[in-house]
Amino acid sequence: MRVPAPDPRSVASTLVLGSLAHFLLAAVAVQALRPEYDPWLAPLSLYLSGAWSAWLRAGYYGLALGIVLLALELRRTLEPRARYALVPVLLCGGALALAATAAWPGPAPGYPVDDLEALVHRIAAMAAFLLVGSGMLLQSAALHRDPHWRGRALAALLLALLAFAGLWLHALWRELPRGASQKAVVALYLSWLWLCAWRLRTAPR
């Protein structure tokens, strides 16, 4: 009996969802395992150095790969009128910046870094949020042109708008607790990525 080949849509979607779940698990677990930091005040970057940091860095790298895979699958499966050539460029560029954020952690208590490493980390973190957020917005604005995505287009657009607005609120309102506000923005980004990855499971070939 001939075994049917796995559906590329399902494989890609599963890999992306797995990367999102692993990142979320790593982020939550590492914060629970590092009681020296207050999660309300400490941004995720502080957990990229020290105990259990390798797990979180692996989560960053896996998430970066998941974003690249999602960008390529959206490009492959969406109808031409729902595609923008710039979207995969933005998403993949943001994924590379995310990986660089983990590769060059910023300064943390007891884990100093030199000025160049700190600068690379800051620029990479800003680029990751801005590039992925811009890709989310641009893609969401066009999803309604694909009949398969029409039922999810509004939800995707609202999530993208909330995520991008939250990013700027986090950046400009410095009185907000840095850990909580950053993680709220990250949660919105992850929600958008999850929605799109889940919808890919039923995308037409």
Automatic annotation (TrEMBL):
Name the record gives this protein: Uncharacterized protein DUF998
Organism of this sequence: Pseudoxanthomonas taiwanensis J19
Top-level taxonomic group: Bacteria
Transmembrane regions: 12-34, 54-72, 84-103, 123-142, 154-173, 179-200
Keywords: Membrane, Transmembrane, Transmembrane helix
InterPro entries: DUF998
